[in-house]
Amino acid sequence: MLPLMLDVTGKKLIIAGGGKVALRKLSIFLKEGAAITVISPEASEEIKRLHEKGVLFWKKTVIKKEDLEGAHFLIAATNDPSANEALCDMADKGTWVCVASDGNKGNMQMMSFKRDGDLTISVSTSGSSPGLAKELSGILMDRCKSIAEKLPVIKKERERIKNTLPMQERRERIRFFIQGLMRN
């Protein structure tokens, strides 16, 4: 699988399931502005609260094929692994599907990531150990705090160099600037 960063603003996300795993997965998309529908006969108190606030839509039923029409993303997070797998077959060919109970079943896996300003560090173990991926992303971000703090300066200088130097000099000058900044 290919690691990517995607703009999910306004993209239709369907979550099958209403428990803790569903909430954890949808929270990531919620922060990024996705249009979220939870489909599950039952839902956690937090999902109910988010529905009542109008932050997401909760459809209190078992998911059907027609519920998936036009979805960009589907997260199968029910408490039934066989139902989660069946959702892969139910989804349209153009839908990105994450099966929470088995990362190797869908066509998408969610990586563990940490963000500090413009610095995002993500780690995947390709489903082997999500807990380890979470631990590693935290360790790496802790070690990169000083880089996150320097990133606004790097960004500003990079733009200045891009706007003032000929193409052939840009990369070398930017690399030289970053190396000097990282030594300090």
TrEMBL record:
EC class of the enzyme, as a word: oxidoreductase
Protein name: precorrin-2 dehydrogenase
EC number: 1.3.1.76
Catalytic activity: precorrin-2 + NAD(+) = sirohydrochlorin + NADH + 2 H(+)
Sample GO molecular function, one term: ferrochelatase activity
Pathway: Porphyrin-containing compound metabolism; siroheme biosynthesis; sirohydrochlorin from precorrin-2: step 1/1
Domain of life: Bacteria
Transmembrane segments: none
Gene Ontology BP annotations: siroheme biosynthetic process
Source organism of this protein record: Rossellomorea marisflavi
Protein keywords: NAD, Oxidoreductase, Porphyrin biosynthesis
Xref: InterPro entries: Met8-like, NAD(P)-bd_dom_sf, Sirohaem_synthase_N
Record bears the keyword Oxidoreductase: yes
